[in-house]
Design goal:
Elements (H helix, E strand, L loop, with lengths): L1 H18 L9 H34 L8
């Protein structure tokens, strides 16, 4: 009777281990889309000062009055 219990336990353990897999989590396209959106947002924020410089240069070229506070 003890041999049957041991064999049954080993069989259950092997089956339990065989169902466990080390596969990575499936690819989530929404996570990639969110990361791309964050990169675009960061690029726009970092380009802000350069856009202000270009706008001021255009105003100077047109001969308009340029305020430093804008």
């Amino acid at each position: 009777m003890k041999y049957v219990t041991i064999i049954l336990f080993v069989l259950v353990a092997v089956i339990a281990i065989s169902y466990v897999s080390a596969e990575p989590i499936p690819w989530n396209p929404f996570k990639e889309l969110e990361r791309a959106g964050q990169n675009i947002r960061d690029a726009i924020i970092s380009a802000g000062p350069a856009v202000d410089v270009v706008a001021r240069a255009q105003k100077i070229a047109r001969g308009e009055d340029v305020d430093e506070e804008e």
